[in-house]
Amino acid sequence: MNCFYHPSVAAAGLCKSCQRGICPECAVELPRGLACRKRCEEDARLRVALEDRNLRLAQEAAGRARRQRVGLMVGGLFVALFGVYFLVTPIQGLEPLMPFRVLAASMVSYGVAMIVRGYIYEDPAGPERIA
Q1: Is 39 in contact with 70 (CB distance < 8 Å)?
Q2: Burial bucket for residue 63 (CB in 10 Å: 0-12, 13-18, 19+)
Q3: In angstroms, how far is CA 27 from the centroid of its own chain?
């Protein structure tokens, strides 16, 4: 591949902005790539800044996902334990009430479902995308 602006010279790489082949004379080096000198420099710098921002946001999202997962599991445990408590603890005057027992059993089921959901919760960004 040859330089887009100097067809007789071999290209050193591709411009990060326009994707054209550029020779060392036309290229300016950026933190992660090359850009056409005085043509695409600013656009390429903005692209690098955008990539940096996206990486930072993806890492923050992964942290939020981990906290959500823990919250689901802790909340589920709390609800399930309350349900078990209401199932096994006789409360004066409420023993004959079947709806109360059904509600307590529902709390246990919901709590277990929250724990399972927290355990299998997947990070929306995907584990392979976060360094």
Answers
A1: no
A2: exposed
A3: 35
- Domain count of the fold of the chain: 1
Confidence at residue 122, expressed as pLDDT on a 0 to 100 scale: 66
Q: What is the DSSP string of 38-100?
A: TTTHHHHHHHHHHHHHHHHHHHHHHHHHHHHHHHHHHHHHHHHHHHHHHHHS--TTTTT-HHH
Whether residue 110 is contained in a domain is answered as yes
User: Helices 98-120 & 41-88, crossing angle to 10 degrees?
Assistant: 150
pLDDT bucket at 110, cuts 50 / 70 / 90 = very high
CA distance 112 to 70: 14
- Domain assignment present for 29: no
Please give the pLDDT value at position 27: 94
25: in domain: no
Residue 118: domain span: 58-129
Task: Flag whether 74 is in a domain.
Answer: yes
pTM above 0.90, yes or no: no
pLDDT in tens, 16-25: 999 999 999 9
